[in-house]
Amino acid sequence: MRKPLIAGNWKMNLLIGEAVKLVNELKPLVAGVNGAEIVVCPVFTALHTVGQALKGANIAMGGQNCYLKESGAFTGEISPQMLLDAGCTWTIIGHSERRQYFNETDQVLNQKLKFALASGLKVMFCVGETLDERESGKMDEVLTRQVLHGLAGLAESDFARAAIAYEPVWAIGTGKTATPQQAQDAHAFIRGLVKKQFGETVAGSVRIQYGGSVKSDNAAELMVKPDVDGALVGGASLKAQSFADIVKNSVL
Ligand code: PEP
After folding, report:
1. Considering 144, 154, 164, 192, which has the largest number of Cβ atoms within 10 A of its Cβ?
2. pLDDT value at position 80?
3. Which atom from ligand 1 is nearest to the alpha carbon of 214?
């Protein structure tokens, strides 16, 4: 059984006070939920304060990105050790916005993933094709490259702390969700790649989240698909009630 992993990616939103207000509203709404693992990913400046507000709650915290060194002359970056220090147990790596706007390559993302895992963080590693790539029949090729290059060199034991987030770029922030069948097909394809590369045990246990305009009213139909093991939620995670409804609708 793969426990659904429901994470809110707040992106570059919410000041510290707003972030704390959101988690204080969210906590009672999800307090009784134990059938899903819940994570919120605030901006870096809010991490410590949100971490304090989450003490004792059934909600973990993650960064949205981190660098591949512990410390040093890397202006503007943040290390896994700093995320852990601020109270994170998770980080997102390879979000399509990082790939698209900050030119993060499969090779760099692979180094980031390995360093974050070695540093003790759990990682949601994002992959997904653009609309152009899907429409020109390149989806399988793109996912194969992102998964095999991105996860290269991971040991079987690493997968206890690594989840994969399938996020078709055309569905992120567009209100256009993949149909449950499109999501299932892509997830099954990704699980097949993991099986070929890392074996049946890893493929059977690794969680694959879906991301792309997940809302409370479409979460259940996505989550019921056999290879969909949770969600990475952007816009709808910025309101406590809608994120809580997604969490509840994801517990089958
Ligand atoms: C995301 O940024 O990971 C995401 C899936 O965003 P949204 O839910 O807003 O499409």
Report:
1. 164
2. 98
3. 8
